[in-house]
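Worked example 4.2. Below are the chains of a multi-component assembly; read each line carefully before continuing.
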Amino acid sequence: MDFYSFLIQLLNGLQYGLLLFLVASGLTLVFGIMGIINLAHGSFYMIGAYMAWALAEQTGNFGLAVLLGIVLTVILGILLEAVFYRHLYKRDHLYQVLMTYGLILVFEELRSIIWGDDVHGVAVPALFSASIPLTDNLSYPVYRLAISAVCVLLALGMYLLIQRTRLGMMIRAGASNNEMVQALGINIKLIYTLVFALGVALAATAGMIAAPISSVFPNMGGQVLIICFVVVVIGGIGSVWGALLAALMIGLVDTFGKVLVPDYAGLSVYVLMAVVLLWRPEGLFKRG
Amino acid sequence: MNKTSPTLLAVMVIVVAALAAFPFVGEKFYVQLVSKVMIMAIFAMSLDLLVGFAGLVSLGHAAFFGLAGYVAALMSPQYEAGNFWTTLPAAMAACAAFALITGFLVLRTSGIYFIMVTLAFAQMLFFIFHDTALGGGSDGIYIYVKPEMMLGDIKLLDLENFNVFYWLVLGCLVAVYLLLRQLLRSNFGHALIGIKTNDHRMRALGFPTFRYKLAAYVMSGALAGLAGYLAALQFGFVNPEILSWHTSGNVLMMVILGGMGTLHGAVVGAFSFILLQEVLSNQAFFGSVAKHWQLTMGLFIIAVALFLPKGLAGLFSRRGEK
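Applying the procedure described above to all two chains together yields the following structure tokens:
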């Protein structure tokens, strides 16, 4: 592999990893703070992608579609938390699995009713449609760089939100001792709703910005969910920074695996997970 | 597990007798439907051993179900009958081996990790059979001729006859039920229930809990393999869909629907779940909504999770009674 091909794969791997991080961070936050395992998290990624496609068709402007999509998915997150998830916080994981599995079936079927079962392509926004030439026949699309940049910005924003704001302080406090937080007069229910909506919006945003390169298709949520589980298991549940490191590892292993051992690339991430389980069964960054 | 009450015993004898007599009165479609239900009941009981007794919530049980089916398909010659006496043990052994290897890894975790890791390993198998040429890719493999059950030169059972196949499945169901019931009444079963309640205390009492859980995991995997083998024979094909997490989710639903931690509950759960699936997807009952039966099923599953944690059994037990 020459230098430029290596560079392209490296950038692709990082971009994929960063995108996975956006989805996985919501999953791990929701678990860390509310103690919920959410199988339907991948559906939010799928819903985001379909929204980006449908809204871009309607408005003719991808940027506007993404902004509208974010607003809509935040509202969706708030509603879902209030109607369904709220009742499961104190319940056994078994029932969380069951209810969120039921939600997946509902989301997939609603997707089929509203948007159909076809695969759709989404045009890359004109602003980022260029490619950077590397050699005579190799170039790198600007849009992929833009995705990575958006992911890094969102990750930074999350860091500032959690570590530097008053709300973030309440979130961290709620994760370690929610009864004490309530006793201090903080509305923990509101915090839970906000964290859940944040998780939904992050997953949906990932789906929206990924739509132009991955296209939108049925069951896209399931694939992402399982890879994100692997990310969370490797990183350690509840650890956002563990999720970041694990997502980048998975992104690189998967991307280079596809180049080096194309037939067995799908296996590489699971092998990585098995190794981590042998070495540190609680993940790389155990919270606590 | 307490001694079976006389009423329950009587009900079971009647149910088994009714099931055994069913092919004499039922049409082919219904005989095959009940046969499918009984296969899923075996599958659900194998998962109940983990979820209901050992307290291990696995979301990857489809792995064993599918693996056994693929072993059966890969070992059968394309247009001739395979050998029942080699393919069934091979399928179950493959599942036991897969359970031993993955069990060693997944049982290092617990709770929510366990759920995610079992799902991930099942997905790994899905990948192997979906993306490589090993199992015919996404099209899967057909089993045109069912394996033969020979004893010397005599054909013991003609599995091509759907009634005979039905009775074989019924026999397996009864055998698995009795086996698991004996197992759970033994010291091993009591230890498993102890581990579910308090793993630390059991370890402090000197029980090697990891080995107990691994043994239960391997046995559960092998029995799920039996169900997968029978399913592959009945449907005549295997494809990666049987390894998908929908299979794992559905069987978990069966276990909870019937009331987990009681073996007959898993059987009741399988019956009700498949019956419900058939009714919801039947146009005669639900007209155009039937096309979107997954939506109704999803809402039903959500309702059970929220309002019926003890499953259908919870509907009948009186309040305050445990």
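Take a moment to check your reading of the output against the notes. The first strand of chain A starts at residue 131 and ends at 133. Chain A has eleven helices and two strands.
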